[in-house]
Amino acid sequence: MTYRRAILPLAAVVLFIAGGWAYLQVSTGANMTQAAGKFVATLSAEQKSQTVLPYDTPKRLEWHFIPKDERKGLQVKEMDQTQRAALHGLLKTALSESGYGKTTKIMSLETLLFKLERGGRNIRDPERYYVTIFGNPAEANRWGLSFEGHHLSLNFVVEQGKVISSTPSFMGANPAVVMTDIEGVQPKGTRVLAKEETLAFDLVNALTEEQRTQAMIAEKAPAEIRAAGEPQPPAEAPAGLPAAKLTEAQQATLKDLINAYASNMPEDVAAERLAAIKEAGFDKVHFAWAGALKPGIGHYYRVQGPTFLIEFINVQPDAAGNVANHIHSVWRDMRGDFALAASSAGE
To answer: Could you give the angle at the alpha carbon of 192 between the alpha carbons of 282 and 211, nearest 5°?
Structure first.
């Protein structure tokens, strides 16, 4: 352990015990703060004015995953190689290895869309993703991070070396399953969000008829996730089947599904998400389904407990016209996204 780590605030240090040995590891928030500082140091004055905004700007609460002509922050396309390397270093600290892998694959799907759509109405570009830092990333400060573009919106707040918010956290995939072999893009058969879909099908199809009747909230899937782009999640009470009415095996599948989302974050952040679910009561988590019970037809699910909300939808065709091959998925904090109490957003 270095002296630098030894003097970090207690919140920035996580104690792990393995094999009878206890050791200290710098937390995700501390790593992010250091990586953000390195990234900011690479920017020109003009780039910095575009990238580093006041923490309390209303832009911090703006998020969306649709193609947009303009977004806040600095575009990857406008960065040199040193800046890109520093940005990816920051993303690697903010996400787990699997979460970072999903992020870069989602970006790479833009190349596939560009080739399949042959100059359609939307700009498809794997470098059309934007980073924004809110406030001054220093150990004693509260600061925020946004990384966003088509099918990605990752939002964080760090305070005194600790991640205090990691939502909204949105990931999408078009196509959900790559159906075509095209040179230079993800190979045929690639499924960026595979577990998020297959585990949900495993669970809904493992339900008894009585359980499924309670879990099913609509025969047809909705058109979109709720409250897309809004600063706080929908306030509706959980719907569907409570975890208390699942068998032990079904509960295990539900936990695996939840973990498929939580594990996009580094170990300490994921562990806090899961600990909050356990403390609030896993039996209070509800699983809701709408639409078809098999792939290739529109389907939707929701997993909601007192502390979190997962929504997943796959109803749109992909760029090649394959039905229900276009995923939108999100993890939100029912206590409040963006490190804001749910009732205070927008005040």
So the answer is: 35
Taking the C-alpha atoms of residue 38 and residue 86, their distance in angstroms, rounded to an integer, is 7
121 pLDDT band, cuts 50/70/90, is: confident
pLDDT at position 326: 98
- Quote the distance between the C-alpha of residue 254 and its chain's center: 18
Length of the chain in residues, anyone? 347
Backbone φ, ψ for residue 327 (5° rounding): -100, 140
Query: What's the CA gap between 232 and 332, in Å, rounded?
Result: 8
What pLDDT score was predicted for residue 26? 67
Quick count: other Cβ atoms within 10 Å of Cβ 121? 6
Residues 316/297, Cβ–Cβ less than 8 Å: no
Instruction: Read off the tokens for 16.
Output: 């792990």
Q: Give the three-class secondary structure for 253.
A: helix
Burial class (CB in 10 A: 0-12, 13-18, 19+), 167: buried
Q: Which of 156, 129, 128, 147 is nearest to 55 (CA)?
A: 156
CA-CA distance, 149 to 106, in Å (whole number)? 10
**Could you tell me which residues come within 8 angstroms of residue 121 by beta carbon, excluding any fewer than 6 positions away?**
none
H or E element at residue 89: helix 81-94
Q: How many CB atoms lie within 10 A of CB 151?
A: 26
Beta strands in 166-211 (DSSP E): 169-173
Question: What does the pLDDT read at residue 279?
Answer: 98
Supply the pTM of this predicted model: 0.92
3-state helix, strand, coil split of the chain in percent (to 5) is: 35, 20, 40
Radius of gyration of the chain (CA): 20
